[in-house]
């Protein structure tokens, strides 16, 4: 605070310490008007008088009046009719007890406490809008479609499981029997090979040459197929025509005759 102002109102300009108090001088409110000394100096108020202008309004209420009237705070502190309306501020505000009534700037002491405040409209429910209703409908339809799809998938899986055909054609016992039959045939072929070797050795001369020319056998010379252990040894095609050579049968088939025609022809020749 400036020394001149402190000297004017009898304050200590050399020290801010107040004997017996921990609060400095600028923070004290000697007059009890609600403003400390530093605030009093800022609005040109008397720090020793709670009503500087003597209009029965305390200095702190003068600040409220200045705000309502939109006038400088120092004017409200120093002048009894700060708003220049011809009516003393204390009379206009009932000594500061009716600051709301002073807001219109007229000498109207009517209490405005009963004034109806503006009505704030209630917020509308966002789900009441057409867009929200349409969205809810789309979501509902999507949920129903999803449930139907899941049910269809579950039922379709069960129907597929019902249509699965179990393969009962494979029998382990039959497979073992077939393997055993194939093994016996292999052993029989080994015996046949040994016999063939013996026959070949017998046809060789002392100098190692053959006594006769070897015969080149055709696979068609085997009239009986391999025994599979279940169905027996099948009779190969072309060997049901007794008395005919395989070449004759093949030539007839190559010429366009069917197997049935050959059977008829073979039957006629044998019946004669």
Structural summary, described in words:
- This protein is mainly α.
- Among the domains are: 3-105, no CATH class; 235-272, no CATH class.
- The protein contains nine helices and no strands.
- The protein has helices at 3-8, 37-42, 59-69, 73-78, 89-92, 130-162, 172-203, 246-254, 259-271.
- The longest helix is centred in the middle third of the chain and has 33 residues, at 130-162.
- The model is unreliable at 105-113 (pLDDT under 50).
Blueprint (SSEs and pairs):
Blueprint: H1 3-8, H2 37-42, H3 59-69, H4 73-78, H5 89-92, H6 130-162, H7 172-203, H8 246-254, H9 259-271
Features:
0% strand, rod-shaped, mainly alpha, 272 residues
Mean pLDDT: 72
Order of helices and strands: HHHHHHHHH
Question: Tally of extended strands?
Answer: 0
- The end-to-end distance, rounded to whole angstroms, is 157 Å
- Count the DSSP helices: 9
Radius of gyration based on Cα positions: 65 Å
Q: What portion of residues is helical?
A: 40-55%
Which of globular, elongated, flat, extended, rod-shaped describes the shape? rod-shaped
Largest sheet: none
Question: Short summary of the structure?
Answer:
By secondary structure, the chain is mainly alpha-helical.
């Amino acid at each position: 605070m400036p020394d001149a102002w402190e000297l004017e109102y009898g304050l200590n300009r050399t020290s801010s310490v107040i004997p017996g108090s921990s609060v400095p001088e600028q923070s004290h409110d000697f007059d009890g008007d609600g403003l400390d000394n530093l605030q009093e100096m800022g609005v040109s108020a008397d720090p020793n008088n709670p009503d500087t202008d003597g209009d029965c309004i305390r200095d702190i209420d003068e600040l409220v009046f200045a705000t309502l009237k939109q006038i400088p705070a120092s004017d409200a502190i120093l002048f009894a009719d700060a708003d220049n309306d011809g009516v003393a501020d204390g009379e206009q505000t009932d000594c500061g007890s009716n600051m709301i009534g002073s807001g219109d700037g007229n000498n109207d002491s009517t209490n405005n406490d009963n004034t109806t405040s503006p009505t704030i409209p209630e917020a509308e429910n966002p789900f009441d809008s057409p867009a929200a209703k349409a969205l809810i409908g789309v979501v509902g339809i999507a949920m129903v479609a999803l449930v139907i799809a899941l049910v269809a998938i579950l039922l379709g899986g069960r129907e597929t499981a019902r249509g699965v055909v179990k393969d009962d054609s494979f029998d382990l016992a039959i497979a073992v029997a077939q393997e055993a039959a194939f093994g016996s045939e292999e052993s029989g072929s080994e015996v046949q090979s040994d016999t063939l070797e013996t026959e070949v050795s017998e046809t060789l001369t002392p100098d190692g040459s053959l006594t006769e020319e070897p015969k080149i056998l055709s696979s068609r010379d085997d009239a009986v197929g391999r025994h599979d252990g279940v169905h027996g040894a099948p009779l190969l095609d072309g060997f049901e025509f007794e008395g005919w050579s395989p070449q004759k049968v093949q030539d007839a088939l190559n010429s366009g005759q069917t197997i049935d025609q050959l059977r008829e022809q073979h039957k006629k020749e044998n019946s004669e």
